[in-house]
Automatic annotation (TrEMBL):
InterPro entries: Alpha/beta_knot_MTases, SpoU_MeTrfase, TrmL, tRNA_m1G_MTases_N
CDD domains recorded: SpoU-like_TrmL
Gene Ontology cellular component terms for the protein in this record: cytoplasm
Organism: Afifella marina DSM 2698
HAMAP family: tRNA_methyltr_TrmL
Name used for this protein in its record: tRNA (cytidine(34)-2'-O)-methyltransferase
Gene3D superfamilies per the UniProt record, alphabetical: 3.40.1280.10
Pfam family, one: SpoU_methylase
């Protein structure tokens, strides 16, 4: 199953929305600390609503701990970044990929970008900089699940 990893998220409302996304599509959400808020934040719960309790959440103390877990699991790390070399629609996902998204305030640092397997960008209009992290996660997760046959049945 496709997972979502949030690198040091800043905004609890976005993390809550992504937890809700994970709950709806069956994707585990990984929080890579330090986060800019505590996970009991009321804004996180407001954005995630009652879906936060349905979400699969895994916390990692830092990027090194996440990387150790990921490498032991043998999973590919695919980052969404404005520094991406490949366009999302042109990329072929595998069913065990992990989508990595950076901090809302700073994105992914260059040392983290250097450790991922692939760097993807969302095709948006040139006059715009980036999408909200929760919106980007939604687009990428849906496309990854569509490609790999992982979308939930509608029945």
């Amino acid at each position: 199953m496709i997972d979502i990893a949030l690198f040091q998220p800043d905004i609890p409302q976005n993390a809550g929305a992504i937890l809700r996304l994970g709950a709806c599509f069956g994707a585990t959400v990984h929080i890579i600390h330090p986060a800019g808020f505590v996970l009991s934040d009321r804004n996180l719960k407001r954005a995630g609503m009652d879906y936060v309790e349905l979400a699969a959440l895994r916390e990692h103390d830092d990027f090194a701990a996440f990387e150790m877990w990921r490498r032991e699991a043998g999973r590919r790390l695919v980052a969404l970044t404005t520094h991406g070399r490949e366009s999302l629609p042109d990329f072929a996902f595998t069913a065990d990929d992990i989508l990595l998204l950076g901090r809302e305030s700073a994105g992914l640092p260059s040392d983290v970008r250097g450790r991922v397997d692939r760097l993807l960008r969302l095709p948006i209009r040139p006059a715009t900089r980036s999408l909200n992290v929760a919106n980007a996660a939604s687009i990428a997760l849906f496309e990854a699940l569509r490609q790999t046959g992982g979308l939930p049945s509608s029945t």
